Amino acid sequence: xxxxxxxxxxxxxxxxxxxxxxxxxxxxxxxxxxxxxxxxxxxxxxxxxxxxxxxxxxxxxxxxxxxxxxxxxxxxxxxxxxxxxxxxxxxxxxxxxxxxxxxxxxxxxxxxxxxxxxxxxxxxxxxxxxxxxxxxxxxxxxxxxxxxxxxxxxxxxxxxxxxxxxxxxxxxxxxxxxxxxxxxxxxxxxxxxxxxxxxxxxxxxxxxxxxxxxxxxxxxxxxxxxxxxxxxxxx
Length: 235
Ligand SMILES: C[S@@+](CC[C@H](N)C(=O)[O-])C[C@H]1O[C@@H](n2cnc3c(N)ncnc32)[C@H](O)[C@@H]1O
Prior knowledge:
- With 235 residues, the protein is of the alpha/beta class.
- It is 40% helix and 20% strand.
- Helix 4 (98-107) runs parallel beside helix 5.
- The longest helix is centred in the last third of the chain and has 23 residues, at 185-207.
- The two termini are 28 Å apart.
């Protein structure tokens, strides 16, 4: 990272962090996200956690190079449970699979609090993560779609509301796009990427003689959204 600039994926996560939040980054690795937020004046202090010593050492080196050691605390720990009682208001868990992110949230009881915002960047299994969140009383407030080096990413802003509900496979797969919310040029790119991957999976299943009904349903929903177009001015 040059001059603490972020990739589009991490920039979209940074944009969801509240001004003056007590911030924590789980699975921080290089600590690019906290370093950006601290140097940009969004947050004044950040917890940086990682389960592995190597990434945490790299995070510490980068924070030191940026002159931020007095405004960061490094924790070698599994998940977010060790952040109980730290007063964290905005918690980022990015760059991991959706299943692992769900497990980390499940083990962090303190996140079941309406004052806590979760900034989540699942690299896979996004549908699993959305299903988990709604089923455990969290809701997704916003989704940000980005494309970086030809890959499509989504970042979720979620919080606990205490009402559990089941969501459909289409809602889980498409998130807030599924009912026309959060439509933007970048969400269109995200949908196009999803459509390609669903077309591939439908073809694969049909060739092997397996039922592809569920995938067809999601694909039809994606095509419907793409064909109806993205309303002007929606972001
Ligand atoms: C691919 S990096 C993502 C780095 C950064 N968050 C990002 O989005 O660019 C994933 C990091 O998560 C850490 N990690 C994996 N499982 C974890 C867990 N259960 N608790 C904390 N950190 C974990 C890994 O050691 C690694 O440094």
